[in-house]
Amino acid sequence: MTQLPDAPASPLFPDGTNPVTPLVVTIHPDAAGQRLDRALADAVPDLSRSRLQALIAAGCVREGERTVEDASTKVKPGQRFEIRVPPPVRAEPEPQAIGLDIVYEDPHLIVIDKPAGLVVHPAAGNPDGTLVNALLAHCGAQLSGIGGVARPGIVHRLDKETSGLMVVAKTDAAHKALSAQFADRTLSRTYLALVWGRPSPSAGTIEGAIGRDPRNRQRMAIVKAGGKPARTHYRVLRPAGAEASLVTCKLDTGRTHQIRVHMTSIGHPLIGDPVYGRRPRSAIANETARSFPRQALHAAKLRFRHPADQRELEFTRPLPGDMRHLLVSLAGEDRIPEY
User: Fold this and answer.
1) What does this protein do (predicted)?
2) 201 preceded by a cis bond (ω within 30 of 0)
3) Which domains does the chain carry?
4) How far is CA 76 from CA 35, 110, 137, 243, in A?
5) How far apart are CA 167 and CA 175, in angstroms?
6) Are 175 and 153 in contact (CB under 8 A)?
7) Reported pTM
8) pLDDT digits (tens, 9 = 90+) for 180-207
9) β-pairing, 102-105 with 109-114?
10) d(CA 16, CA 9)
């Protein structure tokens, strides 16, 4: 194994960054037929096999221009792999003055409308510039320790490219009470999504345990074993032109990528989804939809009991500008029926 001082500047992280020089491993003939994670662990003693499995799952290992996605891949002599080890994430995120769209705030909690593109908490590839960094700056030391130092106050999360409503706890008591509402499903979340095609029936429930896709560890999938139970209720609100629909999705569970996986499983992936979506084959497909840069998913409604006085709170947030423009381009108007 050698470390190249002048590695190419091509991005290697899933988020497009390239902050460190890669470790380059060329497979020795003695390692032929071994699993990739084992061969790399033997070549790079400083990285454990489990750490390498995590790096592979995070998209940090490549062979040429191809991202390697399966740690169990059998290697061949002469194959050359690049390993990009992310810089360590601080155990305690630093406050950063990042603007927040605050929908509601009191001494117990804060409700924000998260924009697409904002990561919720620091992780490999996103060490700062996250919602947590912004919350620490806004709330000060009050959030320390709530939910753990890496995710202070975070009760639930949204994917980086999903926009919409989130509730964040400002006290330990609020965190415990809100987490309990998620667990017993009394906290209600409704999403608006633009999907390809016209779901039939127009309303229904999708059930299927969600776990890591055995064929691609960077994706989630409905799996037969080892997944977590998941249930999504969907309803078509209106057609969006001839090729798409505006739907609502309500969650009984909160699994990773749940709506994206479930809607794809019934043949109606979200427009713009870079992982689970697929463009229609029709030659007349709307170009705005075909080039939409994120999954068209917005957390539009949030309802829960206030952890201090038990009053019911409900918040709604309209479609952000990019999704509204997409709806107009597909349907000719931005009318959204009651949901």
Assistant:
1) Responsible for synthesis of pseudouridine from uracil at positions 1911, 1915 and 1917 in 23S ribosomal RNA.
2) yes
3) 23-83 (3.10.290.10), 89-184 (3.30.2350.10), 186-306+323-338 (3.30.2350.10)
4) 10, 53, 50, 45
5) 10
6) yes
7) 0.73
8) 998 888 999 999 999 999 999 999 999 9
9) antiparallel
10) 11
Q: For residues 199 and 263, what is the distance between their CA atoms, to the nearest angstrom?
A: 9
For 91-148, the pLDDT digits (tens) are 678 889 999 999 999 999 999 999 999 999 887 777 789 999 999 999 887 776 677 7
What are φ and ψ of residue 174, in 5° steps? -65, -40
Half-sphere exposure of residue 163, counting CA atoms within 13 Å on the CB side?
23
Q: How far is CA 250 from CA 69, 112, 174, 234, 306, in A?
A: 31, 19, 23, 6, 20
What phi and psi, each to the nearest 5 degrees, are found at residue 236?
Answer: -75, 120
Helix (H) and strand (E) counts in the chain: 7, 16
Q: Which residues are catalytic?
A: 159
